[in-house]
Design a protein that fits this description.
The complex is a heterodimer of chains A (220) and B (193).
Chain A lengths: L4 E6 L4 H10 L4 E6 L3 H14 L4 E5 L2 H7 L2 E4 L6 H8 L7 E4 L19 H8 L4 E4 L13 E2 L2 E2 L1 E6 L2 H14 L2 E6 L4 H18 L13
Parallel strand pairs in A: 1-2, 1-4, 2-3, 4-5, 5-6, 9-10
Antiparallel strand pairs in A: 6-9, 7-8
Chain B lengths: L2 H8 L6 H8 L3 E5 L4 E3 L7 E7 L2 E6 L5 E7 L4 E2 L2 H6 L6 E4 L3 E7 H10 L2 H26 L2 H11 L3 H4 L2 H8 L3 H14 L1
Antiparallel strand pairs in B: 1-8, 2-7, 3-6, 3-8, 4-5, 4-7
Bound molecules: NADP nicotinamide-adenine-dinucleotide phosphate.
NADP nicotinamide-adenine-dinucleotide phosphate binds next to helix 1 and helix 4 of chain A.
């Protein structure tokens, strides 16, 4: 049996952090659940255990310790919290895969908060220059994780990044969750992926998709 | 986080502070809890590792399930499955943590980058290689021709620290003797003093 990768989920108690943790419970991963609220964390720990009682997982209150121990780090925090957390963990991310899932949108879902020439993923890469940032999971809603098949079709999940090996590692993560991974290009493609999700949110509000919507590329 | 590495380096070559900063960007900082694996047999060994804090061991497991320890690596020691690291073929060794440990890992690719950007590191690793061949020769000779007691005494002389930090069954495995033999040797030595 191959060695389990240690995955730190920063912001594990949020909508996305918790569904990612639960979806990885049966995969070849050791989970480090990090968030500020320890009561919520304990609940999540028990939920994950109920899904897979053999799962290796730990609760960690400090983002620095979680990242130091991790092989792969998932940033499941709001875009607005990323700069502060990146500063704390910077030293501990050298050579590691960091997954940017954020959609930097304003509260009314009318526009992106990033400047037009950079994505949130590229900003994170600038903040963690020696890590390998990969964009993933931003084009799938938290509600999709329980239903990765919508209308009979497996939802596509787009991935972008500059490091081949890291793209492969994150593709496996996406597969474990149950989505169909599609490598879309280098990290700059994150600009398109973040815009795509702004559009899907807007369409969802206009046509009442109730968050059960995803992307699927039709092709022959 | 890098103190032990740079102390280790300073014994052999001197680096400017810019070179230290550059080297820092090529090592992966990794904490490993006691009993967790860094490498499992049959996986490819991706890293050369230096122990900043803690203890690692490398070992094989035979068909009967018995562990045979090749190396017990304390602070400042380097550990890897050298064949697997160089060839990218499956490893024959397991590496895991005897204590909670703090490590620095470097990949083959980053090591090449280190040599290219700071050629002095070629000298460092040459000298380190010499030192390791020396201690491997000593260990091999010890294991071929020493009595169990001599092997034990050699270990206490070279690594006095180790005996208090590593469980007895691991010491016995490292020396290639049974646990019973080890406790008999220790008892006899106590009597002699
Ligand atoms: N929701 C979706 O469907 C969806 C889909 C795709 C992408 N995303 C992206 O995923 C990210 C998380 O979204 P979400 O909906 O899961 O948000 P959320 O439910 O508000 O969760 C945010 C998480 O981050 C933690 N957090 C907030 N500030 C923090 C800080 N300064 N330090 C440490 N932890 C902090 C929170 O913990 P505390 O409660 O303890 O503060 C919580 O665990 C966002 O970037 C979002 O754009 C969301």
């Amino acid at each position: 049996m191959a060695l389990k990768q240690t995955v730190a989920i920063i912001g594990a108690t949020g909508n996305m952090g918790s569904v990612i943790a639960k979806s990885l419970a049966n995969g070849p991963y050791r989970l480090l659940l990090m968030a500020k609220d320890t009561v919520k964390l304990q609940q999540l720990y028990e939920d994950v255990h109920a899904i897979a009682n053999e799962v290796e997982q730990e609760i960690i209150a400090c983002p620095k310790d979680a990242c130091w121990e991790a092989d792969l780090i998932i940033f499941a925090v709001p875009y607005s919290a990323e700069a502060e957390i990146a500063e704390k963990i910077k030293q501990y991310t050298t050579g590691k895969v960091v997954v940017s899932i954020s959609n930097p949108m304003d509260k009314t879902f009318s526009k992106l908060l990033t400047s037009s020439c950079k994505s949130a993923a590229e900003e994170l890469q600038d903040r963690l220059p020696y890590s390998k940032v990969i964009k993933a999971f931003n084009t799938t809603f938290a509600a999709n994780f329980e239903h990765p098949v919508i209308d009979g079709k497996q939802v596509d999940a787009f991935i972008a990044g500059d490091d081949e090996e890291a793209l492969g590692i994150v593709s496996n993560l996406v597969k474990t969750v149950g989505f169909n991974p599609i490598i879309a290009g280098d990290l700059s493609v994150s600009r398109i992926l973040e815009s795509m999700q702004l559009l899907l949110v807007q369409l969802g509000l206009r046509y009442n998709y109730n968050w059960l919507a995803g992307w699927k590329v039709l092709h022959k | 986080m890098f103190e032990v590495l740079f102390q280790n380096v300073k014994d052999k070559i001197s680096l400017t502070s810019d070179e230290e900063e550059l080297a820092k960007t090529l090592f992966i900082p990794k904490k490993l809890k006691k009993k967790q694996y860094l490498l499992q047999q049959d996986d490819v060994c991706k890293y050369l590792t230096i122990v900043e804090k803690g203890v690692l061991r490398s070992y094989t497991v035979d068909d009967a399930g018995t562990e045979h320890i090749l190396q017990l690596a304390l602070e400042g020691h380097w550990v890897t499955d050298m064949y697997s690291f160089l060839s990218q073929e499956p490893a024959i060794y397991n590496i895991d943590a005897v204590e909670d440990s703090e490590l620095l890992l470097i990949t083959n690719r980053s090591l090449d980058e280190l040599y290219e950007k700071i050629p002095k590191f070629e000298r460092f690793f040459r000298l380190l290689g010499q030192k390791n061949i020396l201690s491997l020769q000593r260990r091999l000779t010890g294991s071929l021709s020493f009595t169990a007691e001599d092997k034990y005494l050699q270990l206490t002389k070279n690594f006095p620290d180790l005996l208090n930090r590593v469980p007895q069954h691991m010491i016995a495995s490292y020396l290639g003797i049974t646990r019973e033999t080890l406790s008999r040797i220790k008892k006899n030595l106590l009597k002699d003093h």
